[in-house]
């Protein structure tokens, strides 16, 4: 991906190196498969500097990803202790509302693991292990008890990690006709040099409001096979979609060809949210990214299943009205862009399709 390197930025990690990598609030063992120094045109988001393509140990290959260097730390004793402390902290806070991934990462990176603190921990362990007055039989019994505690702790850690991984498996599969819309949109933007007219005729906010109006119709609720919402879960889900869209559009939902248009349109409509400007095409891209975004939450199995049901129901609504919300005539041609940018965006759409077809 790195067609143009930035010589003054050193790569601090190497290919095939075993590291610890942040994913959500926790650190996980990972192996670096590729190490590259990105230039301004090497990614859709415009990110630059050292980036690493990592595989998380024990995870499916579908979770392999490019990460910036600030998410990677050395695999050493200090950071292994840091990993354990983060897991303990996460375990204690599981029943509390989850903080955002961005706040948690900032807190984690501010942690201080000095050499003196590590030495102090080692001295405490040594003092527990040594007891010159113990009989050989008592010492053997104590060591057996300690091994039992360690095995129990390992099992508890494995159960906790398995629970976390299960939450990562939220599935949002796009209907076939919407996959076609996703590909058509990518081809229009990156191959045909055409951009959508903005603001869209039907904005994300309008689509979400129409869905709510539809779901508040008792006949529609019965037809969708969803249970009536005593607490109006539909409104909560719609509000969540809107928040995610407004926050992520500028960072992860745009192709490189669209970034200048985004800068211009934001200057033109300072009083509007992204959901009041962009439409179904960009909303569809969000649904492909949602599994990764939702992996950072601490929902239990029941909440995850309920959310999946409502997101799938919304996609059915979007599919039913696709002729209104998606319009081929809403694209305008723009100037040619360098092949390097087209190459980078080509990798992005492949990621979209692969993620939408995850099993």
Helix-and-strand structural type: alpha+beta
CATH architecture of the largest domain: Orthogonal Bundle
Supply the number of helical segments: 13
Poorly predicted parts: 1-7, 95-134, 337-359
**Radius of gyration, CA atoms, in whole angstroms:** 25 Å
Question: Based on DSSP secondary structure assignment, what is the total number of beta strands?
Answer: 7
> Please, what is the average pLDDT?
75
N-to-C span: 27 Å
- Can you list the strand order of the major beta sheet? 4-3-2-1-5
Strand content: 5-15%
Estimate nothing, just give the exact number of structural domains. 3
**CATH fold field value of the largest domain:** Enzyme I, Chain A, domain 2
| Assembly annotation | single chain
Could you characterize what this model shows?
It comes from Funneliformis caledonium. Pfam families: MRG, MSL3_chromo-like. Residues 27-88 form the Chromo domain. It is found in: Nucleus. This protein has three domains: 18-109, SH3 type barrels, CATH 2.30.30; 131-168; 176-356, MRG domain (Enzyme I, Chain A, domain 2, Orthogonal Bundle), CATH 1.10.274.30. It has 13 helices and seven strands. A five-stranded antiparallel beta sheet has the order 4-3-2-1-5. A two-stranded antiparallel sheet has the order 6-7. Helix 5 (176-191) runs antiparallel to helix 13 (339-356), helix 8 (233-253) packs across helix 10 and helix 10 (280-294) packs across helix 13. The chain has helices at residues 77-92, 101-109, 115-129, 136-168, 176-191, 204-215, 218-223, 233-253, 259-268, 280-294, 301-320, 322-325, 339-356; strands at 18-23, 26-38, 49-56, 65-68, 72-74, 194-196, 331-333. The radius of gyration is 25 Å and the shape is globular. Strand 1 and strand 2 (26-38) form a beta hairpin.
